[in-house]
Amino acid sequence: MSRLVVVSNRIAPVGEGGPPQGGLAVGVLEALREQGGVWLGWSGKIVETVPDKPRFRTFGNITVVELDLTQAEYDTYYLGYANGTLWPAFHYRLDLMEFSRPNLVGYQAVNKRFAKALEGLLRPGDRVWVHDYHLIPLATELRALDIQLKLGFFLHTPFPAAQVLLGVPWHRDLVEHLATYDVVGFQTERDVAGLRDYLMVENHGTIDQEGNGEAFGRKFVAKAFPISIETAGLVRQAADMENSPQVKRLRAAMRGRRLIIGVDRLDYSKGLVRRIQAVERLFEAHPQFRSAVSFMQIAPPTRGELHQYRNIRQELEQHSGRINGKYADYDWMPIRYISRSYSRRTLAGFYRASAIGLVTPLIDGMNLVAKEYVACQDPEDPGVLVLSCFAGAARELDGALMVNPYDFEAVGDTVAGALQMTLGERRERHKTLMDRLKRWDITAWRKAFEAALAAV
Ligand code: ADQ
Prior knowledge:
Layout: E1 4-10, H1 23-35, E2 37-47, E3 55-59, E4 62-70, H2 71-90, H3 101-119, E5 127-131, H4 138-144, E6 150-154, H5 162-165, H6 171-180, E7 183-186, H7 189-201, E8 205-207, E9 212-215, E10 218-224, H8 231-241, H9 245-254, E11 258-263, H10 272-285, E12 293-298, H11 307-327, E13 335-338, H12 344-352, E14 356-359, H13 368-375, E15 384-388, E16 401-403, H14 408-419, H15 423-439, H16 442-455
Parallel strand pairs: 1-2, 1-5, 2-4, 5-6, 6-7, 7-10, 11-12, 11-14, 12-13, 14-15, 15-16
Antiparallel strand pairs: 3-4, 8-9, 9-10
Helix pairs in contact: 1-16, 2-3, 3-4, 8-12, 10-11, 10-14
The structure holds adenosine-5'-diphosphate-glucose.
Adenosine-5'-diphosphate-glucose binds next to helix 1 and helix 13.
């Protein structure tokens, strides 16, 4: 059987009893265990000089290959280009995008080094599956080494509209790299359309309605494969956590009040300030909910070295402080803003204990929190998902209450409506959502991608 070779910036802990893992890790590990294979990525370590050879570890039929980065590589490839140029641009924030030639050079050099490390590991018949914006040029580097294996790529972020992509210097190279893969997977049709429009506007090629692409003299397949969650596992975990000490403590702290929950990485794409303003609107325009509900936002910091991330926390603290100052009572706190992280198990219990899941990114590739919130509900008494129409997940989760996150007043009013929804409607919506998540879980996602790669 041919092996699967997965390449991503970071590798999830494999077989070492590490922290419980999220959707992608579960899906990828399941595929690797079934077929045997290799997972290559950055170790997370920064070293003075990189060793001549990558480190190998073997767990049954899976080989994990770890590469270290130098400080300069981390600064240019990871912080500079991947997270300082591509992440903001792909999330429609050209105003936050920074670009420098040394960062681009560093990004290309690390991709070249990843390709070199792979070269010695690949065997005839292997299928290579590359993940995310850190590694877009990898196909070009592998082809330059005369590797003729099937190469697939999956983009976890949105792919922006043509007008936005045109703002990224060297955009043509990026798209040419993408077209070098055999299969380019996106989260939604919106993202496929972004690539299609760009190729048309710039006169580089076409993608037909079936996803067959032709550009820069190459043929490829570009399709939507919406990532999902390990639905069955989460359903069990949330039920198991119902009577856990953590959930009991949370319920005791709520003292019979209902909970609205938000869970995100602290990122400007997640719409956190407007979300807090929506909660302010809820308490302002719907006073019956004062003292009756609280909003808990869990948002541990990420990418703290980048200045674009430094002010978000402060801004959130200011808004929460102001709203708490305005509405709090001696026995009630309207907003709890928590910047530590919790295990996936604990989060599953917290989701189940929450009447509303408030997921309002300004734009998001998919947003797995939305799907996880739904899977963790008690089907007999489910909570309501309030979801941004700009999350990739909105395309599938039509049982949610859809909102425009920029209209925070409407979001606040929608939350008020959700808090008053009848049990019958909540059950009906939850059933619609669960039908989708049971049919299309993480296994279905990765099998669809693998089938597309096998078919080329
Ligand atoms: P993220 O931007 O990290 O992922 P998201 O999909 O919401 O966004 O979360 C990924 C995982 O991290 C989920 O399993 C979630 O539970 C977990 N997570 C998020 N916030 C957390 C927190 N505060 N504490 C603990 N765990 C937390 C990127 C893209 C998304 C896309 C995913 C997967 O930006 O659009 O859905 O990849 O493709």
